[in-house]
Amino acid sequence: MGRWEPNARGRLEQAALELYVERGYEQTPVADIAQRAGLTERTFFRHFADKREVLFGGSGRLEELCVGAVAAAPATATPLEAVTAALDTAAGVFEERGDLVRQRQGVIDANTELRERELIKLASLSAALADALRERGVGELTALLTAESAVGVLKVAFGRWMDEGQGRPLRPLLAECFDVLRTLSARGAVGAG
Amino acid sequence: MGRWEPNARGRLEQAALELYVERGYEQTPVADIAQRAGLTERTFFRHFADKREVLFGGSGRLEELCVGAVAAAPATATPLEAVTAALDTAAGVFEERGDLVRQRQGVIDANTELRERELIKLASLSAALADALRERGVGELTALLTAESAVGVLKVAFGRWMDEGQGRPLRPLLAECFDVLRTLSARGAVGAG
DNA sequence: CTACGTGAGGACAGCCACTGTCATGAGCAC
DNA sequence: GTGCTCATGACAGTGGCTGTCCTCACGTAG
């Protein structure tokens, strides 16, 4: 056995989520998180750039997953079809750990700083998707706008998923949003439905 | 004349932008901004919620302008046409004070915290646009996705406008992005152009 | 077995963003 | 002039975050 308990990072993540849920994000000093994890404040900041980042450890992996899905899409797929595949993959990750995701999202939605951090993670995802599309030979503007649209769809569908509680699973919600998105361009679409 | 110099808020905004440009955002303590404006640090925080917000005083007005444009769009306009009108209005504001906008954007792009704040302002704009569309009788999902798409277009077109230096004005860039967006839904669009 | 390097973590001092609280004093109403 | 208002000043305090040096189990070489 090592000098220290293993998985310091994971312990910090768990302690932080617990405390953010119990007391709220703002009412939780970093020192308390570290203490619950059996570490010091200084060590917290060796593992995470700041107090927010401890909630976003998985965003890098999610991004890689989505990029991989775009790259793996058949060569005949349109850009929109490629990012649809990416979001489908992402949906799988969310639905696997539904409870954790909901708990985490509740904390994020309750605090503006955390929402800011979430938004920049989504912007990073958009940039990564655009890169992946460019790799497929998609033109610059099309790549950027497809990626932005995909993240827009993800935001709306995910929001619905959270709101609906134990309603429909995420994947059909994504599909519905992509359908509506395609409808927007239709000539004369007044969108009253 | 009052006891104090007038327009404390405006002086703080100007001093902040100057110092952020001269030294960078992180290297500028709030006390220095206040000093240049002839005020104290405490007074800075009476006018702005935090050190970032001093750069975003105009975002509320921009949001109102866009919402007004959506509301003023003819009843026959599609949701996409309504938000196009809104972004056209916004483009006018940006182009009026091109130099200020560019300087400000340079500061924002150089700092992650400021980019986060910008993103949440854009998310707020998106929510306001969705509200304005709902007021027109547009369905929930269509309103949300149209608003997200509009902000996506704004991000891409504005980024291009910044990158192109003294190239095309903003309005045609917006139009081009909306064109590409409509193309995405086309059957078989591979987007290689 | 000893010696040494490595690396995660602790101890501590300090900067600065931000807040709570009370004091100040010109302008204004009467 | 008396008293109220209210933008600002003064000052102390909390907490996020950093720089720096110290500690000490572990692995490895010899």
TrEMBL record, chains A, B:
Domain of life assignment: Bacteria
Protein name (record): TetR/AcrR family transcriptional regulator
KW Transmembrane (keyword) present: no
Residues of the DNA-binding region: 29-48
InterPro entries noted in UniProt: Homeodomain-like_sf, HTH-type_TetR-like_transc_reg, HTH_TetR, MftR_C
Cited SUPFAM superfamilies: Homeodomain-like
Keywords for this protein: DNA-binding, Transcription, Transcription regulation
Species, as recorded: Streptomyces hyderabadensis
Residues making up the signal peptide according to the UniProt record: none
Domain HTH tetR-type residue range list: 6-66
